Amino acid sequence: MPQPQPQPQPQPHVPGSSHDPRSEYMPAARADRRDLPRESGHRQDEVVSEAREPTPTPRPRTLGGPLGRMPRGPLAVGLIGVVVLAMILVPLAVNKLVSGRNGAGTSTAAQSTVLDGNAPLSQLLTVSGRVGSGVAPSVELNGDASLSAPGSVLTDVVQTGQGRAVSAGTPVILQVSQFSGLNGRNTTGNEAGYKLWQGLLGPEVGDYINAAVSGQREGARVVLREPAEEEDGSRTTKITVVDLPAHYGNGGGEAAGGRHPHRD
Protein backbone atom coordinates (compact mmCIF):
# COMPACT_ATOMS: atom_id res chain seq x y z
CA MET A 1 0.00 0.00 0.00
CA PRO A 2 1.65 3.29 -1.05
CA GLN A 3 2.64 5.77 1.50
CA PRO A 4 1.40 9.34 1.25
CA GLN A 5 4.04 11.83 0.16
CA PRO A 6 4.71 14.64 2.53
CA GLN A 7 3.56 18.10 1.24
CA PRO A 8 6.26 20.78 1.14
CA GLN A 9 5.75 23.49 3.65
CA PRO A 10 5.80 27.07 2.46
CA GLN A 11 8.82 28.98 3.47
CA PRO A 12 8.32 32.22 5.26
CA HIS A 13 9.04 35.29 3.15
CA VAL A 14 11.78 37.50 4.30
CA PRO A 15 11.70 41.01 2.78
CA GLY A 16 14.73 41.82 0.69
CA SER A 17 15.59 38.17 0.43
CA SER A 18 17.00 37.05 -2.88
CA HIS A 19 14.82 34.01 -2.80
CA ASP A 20 11.57 35.98 -3.24
CA PRO A 21 10.15 34.56 -6.43
CA ARG A 22 8.40 37.86 -7.31
CA SER A 23 11.61 39.76 -7.08
CA GLU A 24 12.82 38.34 -10.36
CA TYR A 25 9.93 39.85 -12.33
CA MET A 26 8.95 43.01 -10.56
CA PRO A 27 11.87 45.21 -11.67
CA ALA A 28 11.32 44.37 -15.30
CA ALA A 29 7.61 45.07 -15.02
CA ARG A 30 8.28 48.42 -13.40
CA ALA A 31 10.79 49.25 -16.09
CA ASP A 32 8.24 48.42 -18.73
CA ARG A 33 5.70 50.64 -17.06
CA ARG A 34 8.17 53.50 -16.83
CA ASP A 35 9.20 53.28 -20.51
CA LEU A 36 5.72 52.79 -21.97
CA PRO A 37 4.40 56.31 -21.36
CA ARG A 38 7.49 57.83 -23.00
CA GLU A 39 7.19 55.79 -26.16
CA SER A 40 3.44 56.29 -26.50
CA GLY A 41 3.78 60.02 -25.85
CA HIS A 42 6.53 60.34 -28.45
CA ARG A 43 4.43 58.56 -31.03
CA GLN A 44 1.44 60.74 -30.28
CA ASP A 45 3.58 63.83 -30.80
CA GLU A 46 4.65 62.52 -34.20
CA VAL A 47 1.05 61.81 -35.22
CA VAL A 48 -0.07 65.27 -34.12
CA SER A 49 2.81 66.96 -35.92
CA GLU A 50 2.07 65.03 -39.10
CA ALA A 51 -1.62 65.92 -38.86
CA ARG A 52 -0.83 69.58 -38.40
CA GLU A 53 1.69 69.69 -41.26
CA PRO A 54 -0.02 71.88 -43.96
CA THR A 55 -0.38 70.36 -47.38
CA PRO A 56 1.14 72.65 -50.05
CA THR A 57 -1.51 73.89 -52.46
CA PRO A 58 -0.30 74.05 -56.10
CA ARG A 59 -0.55 77.51 -57.59
CA PRO A 60 -2.80 77.75 -60.65
CA ARG A 61 -0.87 77.90 -63.91
CA THR A 62 -1.64 81.00 -65.91
CA LEU A 63 -0.27 82.51 -69.09
CA GLY A 64 1.24 85.30 -67.09
CA GLY A 65 3.08 82.88 -64.82
CA PRO A 66 5.85 81.64 -67.09
CA LEU A 67 5.86 84.77 -69.23
CA GLY A 68 5.72 87.31 -66.49
CA ARG A 69 2.92 89.74 -65.94
CA MET A 70 0.94 90.26 -69.12
CA PRO A 71 0.74 93.86 -70.33
CA ARG A 72 -2.59 95.59 -70.18
CA GLY A 73 -4.15 98.74 -71.51
CA PRO A 74 -2.59 100.72 -74.39
CA LEU A 75 0.61 98.68 -74.27
CA ALA A 76 -1.30 95.45 -74.89
CA VAL A 77 -3.21 97.04 -77.77
CA GLY A 78 0.06 98.26 -79.28
CA LEU A 79 1.64 94.81 -79.05
CA ILE A 80 -1.37 93.19 -80.69
CA GLY A 81 -1.20 95.74 -83.50
CA VAL A 82 2.50 95.00 -84.08
CA VAL A 83 1.82 91.24 -84.25
CA VAL A 84 -1.04 91.65 -86.72
CA LEU A 85 1.03 94.00 -88.87
CA ALA A 86 3.91 91.54 -88.91
CA MET A 87 1.58 88.71 -89.95
CA ILE A 88 0.50 90.79 -92.95
CA LEU A 89 3.81 92.29 -94.02
CA VAL A 90 6.12 89.30 -93.63
CA PRO A 91 4.35 87.08 -96.23
CA LEU A 92 4.19 90.03 -98.63
CA ALA A 93 7.90 90.70 -98.23
CA VAL A 94 8.78 87.05 -98.80
CA ASN A 95 6.55 86.87 -101.87
CA LYS A 96 8.11 90.03 -103.29
CA LEU A 97 11.60 88.69 -102.68
CA VAL A 98 10.84 85.41 -104.44
CA SER A 99 9.11 87.19 -107.31
CA GLY A 100 12.04 89.58 -107.65
CA ARG A 101 14.50 86.71 -107.93
CA ASN A 102 12.43 84.77 -110.46
CA GLY A 103 11.23 87.78 -112.46
CA ALA A 104 14.42 89.82 -112.73
CA GLY A 105 14.40 90.91 -116.37
CA THR A 106 12.31 88.85 -118.76
CA SER A 107 13.71 85.36 -118.77
CA THR A 108 12.20 82.04 -119.77
CA ALA A 109 13.24 80.73 -116.35
CA ALA A 110 10.51 82.88 -114.82
CA GLN A 111 7.82 80.98 -116.74
CA SER A 112 6.37 77.85 -115.23
CA THR A 113 5.81 76.25 -118.67
CA VAL A 114 7.90 76.51 -121.83
CA LEU A 115 6.38 75.40 -125.12
CA ASP A 116 8.39 74.23 -128.09
CA GLY A 117 8.70 77.11 -130.54
CA ASN A 118 8.72 74.62 -133.43
CA ALA A 119 5.26 73.23 -132.59
CA PRO A 120 2.22 74.03 -134.77
CA LEU A 121 1.15 77.62 -134.30
CA SER A 122 -2.35 76.67 -133.09
CA GLN A 123 -0.77 74.85 -130.14
CA LEU A 124 1.25 77.90 -129.11
CA LEU A 125 -0.73 81.12 -129.47
CA THR A 126 -3.80 82.96 -130.65
CA VAL A 127 -3.84 86.19 -132.67
CA SER A 128 -6.85 88.47 -132.23
CA GLY A 129 -7.96 91.60 -134.05
CA ARG A 130 -9.42 92.44 -137.46
CA VAL A 131 -7.24 93.01 -140.49
CA GLY A 132 -7.49 96.59 -141.79
CA SER A 133 -9.13 97.97 -138.62
CA GLY A 134 -6.25 100.36 -137.96
CA VAL A 135 -5.70 98.78 -134.53
CA ALA A 136 -2.76 96.58 -133.59
CA PRO A 137 -3.54 92.89 -133.17
CA SER A 138 -2.93 91.10 -129.88
CA VAL A 139 -1.16 87.83 -129.15
CA GLU A 140 -2.07 85.46 -126.33
CA LEU A 141 0.23 82.55 -125.52
CA ASN A 142 -1.54 79.31 -124.70
CA GLY A 143 -1.62 78.54 -120.97
CA ASP A 144 0.34 81.69 -120.16
CA ALA A 145 3.44 79.77 -121.20
CA SER A 146 6.57 81.00 -122.93
CA LEU A 147 8.05 79.82 -126.20
CA SER A 148 11.45 78.38 -126.79
CA ALA A 149 13.44 79.47 -129.83
CA PRO A 150 12.48 77.68 -133.06
CA GLY A 151 15.15 76.07 -135.17
CA SER A 152 14.50 78.38 -138.13
CA VAL A 153 12.08 81.02 -139.41
CA LEU A 154 8.56 79.60 -139.63
CA THR A 155 5.66 81.15 -141.56
CA ASP A 156 1.94 80.56 -140.99
CA VAL A 157 -1.00 82.11 -142.84
CA VAL A 158 -3.67 82.48 -140.16
CA GLN A 159 -6.15 84.33 -142.40
CA THR A 160 -6.45 84.23 -146.17
CA GLY A 161 -7.39 87.36 -148.16
CA GLN A 162 -10.09 87.87 -150.72
CA GLY A 163 -8.58 90.88 -152.50
CA ARG A 164 -6.07 91.12 -155.28
CA ALA A 165 -2.95 88.99 -155.24
CA VAL A 166 0.37 90.68 -154.57
CA SER A 167 3.86 89.84 -155.75
CA ALA A 168 7.24 91.50 -156.22
CA GLY A 169 6.77 95.04 -157.54
CA THR A 170 3.07 95.23 -156.52
CA PRO A 171 2.06 98.35 -154.58
CA VAL A 172 1.10 97.20 -151.05
CA ILE A 173 0.37 98.47 -147.57
CA LEU A 174 1.78 96.34 -144.77
CA GLN A 175 0.87 96.66 -141.12
CA VAL A 176 3.57 95.00 -139.03
CA SER A 177 3.53 94.26 -135.26
CA GLN A 178 6.09 92.37 -133.22
CA PHE A 179 5.60 90.42 -129.95
CA SER A 180 7.75 88.64 -127.38
CA GLY A 181 7.62 84.87 -127.14
CA LEU A 182 8.15 85.11 -123.38
CA ASN A 183 4.81 86.66 -122.48
CA GLY A 184 3.10 87.85 -125.67
CA ARG A 185 3.96 91.50 -124.97
CA ASN A 186 3.88 93.92 -127.89
CA THR A 187 7.48 94.94 -128.60
CA THR A 188 6.93 97.07 -131.71
CA GLY A 189 8.26 100.10 -129.91
CA ASN A 190 5.61 102.78 -130.46
CA GLU A 191 2.32 103.79 -128.92
CA ALA A 192 0.20 102.45 -131.77
CA GLY A 193 1.73 98.99 -131.46
CA TYR A 194 2.29 98.60 -135.20
CA LYS A 195 4.18 100.13 -138.13
CA LEU A 196 2.84 100.80 -141.61
CA TRP A 197 4.83 100.37 -144.76
CA GLN A 198 3.49 101.54 -148.12
CA GLY A 199 5.34 100.92 -151.35
CA LEU A 200 6.31 98.32 -153.88
CA LEU A 201 6.69 94.83 -152.51
CA GLY A 202 10.30 93.75 -152.64
CA PRO A 203 13.45 93.11 -150.54
CA GLU A 204 13.10 96.53 -148.98
CA VAL A 205 10.48 95.18 -146.54
CA GLY A 206 12.85 92.44 -145.47
CA ASP A 207 13.60 89.08 -146.93
CA TYR A 208 11.38 87.06 -144.61
CA ILE A 209 8.34 89.36 -144.90
CA ASN A 210 8.78 89.66 -148.64
CA ALA A 211 8.82 85.88 -149.03
CA ALA A 212 5.87 85.42 -146.65
CA VAL A 213 3.62 88.02 -148.31
CA SER A 214 4.41 87.28 -151.96
CA GLY A 215 1.55 85.32 -153.50
CA GLN A 216 -0.98 86.33 -150.81
CA ARG A 217 -4.14 88.32 -151.38
CA GLU A 218 -5.13 91.55 -149.74
CA GLY A 219 -6.92 90.91 -146.47
CA ALA A 220 -4.48 88.18 -145.47
CA ARG A 221 -2.68 87.86 -142.13
CA VAL A 222 0.69 86.12 -141.87
CA VAL A 223 2.57 85.19 -138.68
CA LEU A 224 6.33 84.69 -138.68
CA ARG A 225 8.30 82.98 -135.89
CA GLU A 226 12.04 83.34 -135.69
CA PRO A 227 14.66 82.66 -133.00
CA ALA A 228 15.56 85.65 -130.87
CA GLU A 229 17.77 86.42 -127.90
CA GLU A 230 16.62 88.65 -125.07
CA GLU A 231 18.82 91.21 -123.33
CA ASP A 232 19.41 88.82 -120.41
CA GLY A 233 20.68 86.15 -122.79
CA SER A 234 17.61 83.92 -122.77
CA ARG A 235 16.52 82.55 -126.15
CA THR A 236 12.90 82.64 -127.21
CA THR A 237 10.67 83.28 -130.23
CA LYS A 238 10.14 86.66 -131.88
CA ILE A 239 6.59 86.78 -133.24
CA THR A 240 5.85 89.06 -136.20
CA VAL A 241 2.28 89.60 -137.36
CA VAL A 242 1.96 91.04 -140.89
CA ASP A 243 -1.43 92.26 -142.09
CA LEU A 244 -2.07 92.96 -145.77
CA PRO A 245 -4.99 95.39 -145.84
CA ALA A 246 -6.61 96.53 -149.06
CA HIS A 247 -4.54 99.05 -151.05
CA TYR A 248 -6.34 102.00 -152.61
CA GLY A 249 -4.23 103.55 -155.35
CA ASN A 250 -0.57 103.41 -156.08
CA GLY A 251 2.08 105.11 -154.11
CA GLY A 252 5.52 104.72 -152.79
CA GLY A 253 7.54 105.40 -149.73
CA GLU A 254 6.86 104.75 -146.08
CA ALA A 255 4.23 105.84 -143.59
CA ALA A 256 3.61 105.90 -139.83
CA GLY A 257 7.04 105.08 -138.57
CA GLY A 258 9.47 106.48 -141.07
CA ARG A 259 11.34 103.16 -141.29
CA HIS A 260 10.93 99.81 -142.92
CA PRO A 261 8.84 97.51 -140.73
CA HIS A 262 11.38 94.72 -140.69
CA ARG A 263 15.00 94.32 -141.67
CA ASP A 264 16.86 91.01 -141.82
Write the layout of secondary structure elements.
Blueprint: H1 26-52, H2 64-67, H3 74-102, E1 114-115, E2 125-128, E3 138-141, E4 146-147, E5 154-159, E6 171-180, E7 195-200, H4 207-213, E8 220-229, E9 235-244, E10 254-255
Parallel strand pairs: 1-4
Antiparallel strand pairs: 2-3, 5-8, 6-7, 6-9, 7-10, 8-9
Can you give keywords for this protein?
264 residues; alpha+beta
Arithmetic mean pLDDT: 74
Low-confidence blocks of residues: 23-37, 63-67, 102-111, 250-260
Number of strands: 10
Query: In angstroms, what is the radius of gyration?
Result: 56 Å
The H-and-E topology, N to C, reads as HHHEEEEEEEHEEE
Structural class, from secondary structure content? alpha+beta
Number of helices: 4
Spatial strand sequence of the major β-sheet: 5-8-9-6-7-10
N→C terminal distance: 169 Å
| Major sheet attributes | 6 strands, antiparallel
Shape: elongated
Q: How much beta, percentage-wise?
A: 15-25%
Helix content, binned percent: 25-40%
Walkthrough of the structure:
By secondary structure, the chain is α+β, with helices and mostly antiparallel strands. 25% of the residues lie in helices and 21% in strands. The chain has 4 helices and 10 strands, in the order αααβββββββαβββ. The strands form 3 sheets. A 6-stranded antiparallel β-sheet has the order 5-8-9-6-7-10, covered by helices on one side. The chain is elongated and about 110 Å long.
Quick recap:
The chain is of the alpha+beta class. Strand 8 and strand 9 form a beta hairpin.
